[in-house]
């Protein structure tokens, strides 16, 4: 390393230290200021929520509409679409619904085109829809693996690409990725599901880097990693130590995170500290904690699964429908 390169390293290090102090002070200040004083307005924004006909997707859509957003919902549950649209309109909100199987790339692009023509370009995108099968690897049918990847991660690419260029053109927008705690720590019966959620985290962080590097600072991004949500998606699973989250709480946290431009939401918050064990302790010790203390693998062994699902709910929010065989 020559003198010039060494000077650059010293300069960049000092710059980082200065920025670190500023960011730490900013984070502390934000902790002290109530959210309602930091919240931005989303009135007039076109907000797309995938899987918004039920579960936390439905709750998020309703909350966004109550805040003045023009809500667009994509789902395969036609009856659910009618019900949530009626609820939003009765409350004086605006809602447009489209029946769309996001596992089908051509259908995504077709529906996106219709959305832009009939409603406008999406400026607030909530990639929420998800799918889970819940079997061990040797028991997983190939088509279930493919379906899980198509819904939980590949669809994010097709949907985001459909609206990102316009966000970039205006340097304005917000992208929300509903991932999962299963995207931070793998678990039993989740080789497909957990892999897609890990992928969703990587996709989100990489897209954030691309936008920041190219100066699109006003396109905000929020990554959400919730633990088990009481919606039925993981029916039968009961955690030993961590509480099962209520859908209303999760939806409220997601919307609050959007309004305050939070970059990462891990629910419950205490999981942030538990995750440190994964990186700070030896792998065998980490496994011992998960297996003997939290007993997460044993809990996932109780997963009942479903013979039929519908793809209308994000991360932890699938409900039964005998005629629909996706999430």
TrEMBL record:
<dbReference type="InterPro" id="IPR002347">
    <property type="entry name" value="SDR_fam"/>
</dbReference>
<protein>
    <recommendedName>
        <fullName>Short-chain dehydrogenase/reductase 3</fullName>
    </recommendedName>
</protein>
<comment type="similarity">
    <text>Belongs to the short-chain dehydrogenases/reductases (SDR) family.</text>
</comment>
<keyword id="KW-0443">Lipid metabolism</keyword>
<feature type="transmembrane region" description="Helical">
    <location>
        <begin position="6"/>
        <end position="30"/>
    </location>
</feature>
<comment type="function">
    <text>Catalyzes the reduction of all-trans-retinal to all-trans-retinol in the presence of NADPH.</text>
</comment>
<dbReference type="InterPro" id="IPR036291">
    <property type="entry name" value="NAD(P)-bd_dom_sf"/>
</dbReference>
<keyword id="KW-1133">Transmembrane helix</keyword>
<feature type="transmembrane region" description="Helical">
    <location>
        <begin position="270"/>
        <end position="294"/>
    </location>
</feature>
<dbReference type="Pfam" id="PF00106">
    <property type="entry name" value="adh_short"/>
</dbReference>
<dbReference type="GO" id="GO:0016020">
    <property type="term" value="C:membrane"/>
</dbReference>
<dbReference type="GO" id="GO:0005811">
    <property type="term" value="C:lipid droplet"/>
</dbReference>
<keyword id="KW-0812">Transmembrane</keyword>
<dbReference type="GO" id="GO:0052650">
    <property type="term" value="F:all-trans-retinol dehydrogenase (NADP+) activity"/>
</dbReference>
<keyword id="KW-0472">Membrane</keyword>
<keyword id="KW-0560">Oxidoreductase</keyword>
<keyword id="KW-0521">NADP</keyword>
């Amino acid at each position: 390393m020559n003198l010039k390169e060494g000077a650059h390293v010293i300069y960049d290090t000092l710059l980082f230290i200065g920025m670190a102090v500023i960011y730490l002070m900013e984070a502390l200040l934000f902790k002290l200021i109530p959210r309602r004083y930091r919240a931005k307005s989303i009135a007039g924004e076109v907000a797309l929520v995938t899987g918004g006909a039920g579960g936390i997707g439905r709750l998020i859509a309703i909350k966004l509409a109550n805040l003045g957003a023009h809500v667009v919902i994509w789902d395969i549950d036609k009856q659910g679409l009618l019900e949530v649209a009626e609820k939003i309109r009765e409350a004086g909100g605006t809602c447009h619904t489209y029946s769309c199987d996001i596992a089908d790339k051509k259908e995504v692009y077709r529906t996106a085109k219709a959305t832009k023509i009939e409603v406008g370009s999406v400026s607030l995108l909530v990639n929420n829809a998800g799918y889970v099968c819940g079997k061990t690897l040797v028991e997983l049918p190939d088509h279930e693996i493919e379906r899980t990847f198509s819904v939980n991660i590949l669809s994010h690419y097709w949907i985001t690409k459909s609206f990102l260029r316009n966000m970039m053109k205006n340097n304005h927008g917000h992208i929300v990725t509903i991932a999962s705690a299963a995207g931070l720590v793998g678990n039993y019966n989740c080789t497909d599901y957990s892999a897609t959620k890990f992928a969703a985290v990587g996709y989100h962080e990489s897209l954030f880097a691309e936008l920041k590097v190219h100066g699109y600072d006003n396109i905000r991004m929020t990554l959400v990693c919730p633990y088990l949500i009481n919606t039925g998606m993981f029916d039968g699973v009961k955690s030993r130590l961590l509480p099962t989250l209520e859908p209303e709480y999760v939806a409220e946290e997601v919307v609050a995170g959007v309004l305050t431009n939070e970059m990462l939401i891990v629910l419950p918050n205490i999981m942030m500290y538990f995750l440190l064990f994964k990186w700070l302790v030896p792998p065998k010790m980490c496994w011992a904690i998960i297996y003997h203390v939290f007993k997460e693998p044993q809990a996932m062994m109780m997963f009942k699964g479903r013979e039929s699902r519908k793809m209308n709910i994000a991360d932890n929010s699938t409900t039964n429908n005998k005629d629909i065989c996706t999430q």
